[in-house]
Amino acid sequence: MKKVAVVYWSGTGNTEAMAQAVAAGAQKAGAEVTVLTSAEFGAAQVGSYDALAFGCPAMGAEVLEESEFQPMWDDCKSALGSKPVVLFGSYGWGDGEWMRSWAADAEGAGIMLAADFVICNDAPDDDAKAKCEALGAAIA
User: Fold this and answer.
1) DSSP-based three-state secondary structure for 52
2) How far apart are CA 92 and CA 94, in angstroms?
3) Which residues contact 114 (CB under 8 A, 6 or more apart)?
4) Where do the DSSP E strands lie in the chain?
5) Cα dist. 67→9, 27, 70, 71 in Å?
């Protein structure tokens, strides 16, 4: 059984709802899943998991949350190696630039993105939740 970590930061609960859907998809596909906030996770824990999902909403001028999530992500990047990774998050403005930049940063660091990222505007609707579940299944 694969061990999957779903790590997220959420200010309004939208990305948290996406994290729960990613976790549900991975569990339905047979994985053992742990859901953690970015404050609860760091590079030292990466080795405990077979695959990881990271979620963060767009902040400011379409960037990752800077005080908690970005430092955790920067800390973890070099430890991820060839583990399957997926990205997700919500936004309230813009066109998803923060996610395209984040995916490019991951790929530039040699991280294997196991599936296309999932984004949604504001709270995830049924379609976004289904895409998040599929994302979880992709790494399970």
Assistant:
1) strand
2) 7
3) 51, 84, 85, 86, 138, 139
4) 3-8, 32-37, 51-55, 84-91, 112-113, 118-121
5) 11, 30, 7, 7
For residues 138 and 140, give the distance between their C-alpha atoms in angstroms, rounded to a whole number: 6
The enclosing domain of 30 has a CATH number of: 3.40.50.360
pTM: 0.97
Residues 14-54: pLDDT tens digits? Answer: 999 999 999 999 999 999 999 999 999 999 999 999 999 99
Domain span including residue 39: 3-139
Q: How many domains does the chain have?
A: 1
